[in-house]
Amino acid sequence: MKKAALYERAERLYISAQNTFDEIAAMLGVSERTLRTWADEGKWQNKRVKLVAQQESLDERLYNFVTKLMDRAEKDLENPDGQIDVGRLYTITRLVDKLQKAHQYEGTLNTEKTENAKDPSGGVSEETLTKIEKQLSLL
Q1: Cα separation of 109 and 117, whole Å?
Q2: How many CA atoms lie less than 13 Å away from 48 in the CB half-sphere?
Q3: Residue 2 has what DSSP assignment?
Q4: Phi-psi sector, 114: left (phi>0), alpha (psi -120 to 50), beta
Q5: Are residues 59 and 114 in the same domain?
């Protein structure tokens, strides 16, 4: 593999996949010293920090959005007819599924983050979740 290709792959493994220099060295057959030199020259640590911050920001925004949708669904259930808006229900089910998959993927990149992650249900009670599941079975 050419030096430029090794550099790009090493950078991607360090920044996106959150691999250590030891792991990257073993995968690519490049010395740890070379990797550290490349990382210093390319400011990989700054890029890694920026990427993590962007991911956390997106995660927080999605979490807040799903929480608001769940709150509105709970209010729908409190109405006399107890029906949740079908569009809202569809959006919730799609987003929660996607958030769980994204969360699992992020967990492979950063185990510690997964352990401290927020609950995508937004802290909704078990009773409310049961009502929502009943609504889903009616669709």
Answers
A1: 13
A2: 19
A3: -
A4: alpha
A5: yes
Range of the structural domain that residue 113 is part of = 54-138
Both tokens assigned to 115: 């352990």
Cα 124 from Cα 87, distance rounded (Å): 19
Statement to judge: residues 98 and 68 lie in one domain? yes
Q: How many Å apart are CA 57 and CA 77, to the nearest integer?
A: 30
* pLDDT (tens place) for every residue of the chain, 139 residues total: 798 999 999 999 999 889 999 999 999 999 999 999 999 999 999 999 998 888 777 777 877 888 888 888 888 888 888 787 888 878 878 877 777 776 666 665 554 333 333 344 445 566 666 666 666 665 4
Report d(CA 109, CA 112) in Å as an integer: 9
- Assess whether 33 and 58 both reside in one domain: no
Q: How far is CA 3 from CA 38, 53, 81, 100, in A?
A: 11, 29, 66, 38
Characterise 20 by phi-psi region: left (phi > 0), alpha (psi -120 to 50), beta (else): beta
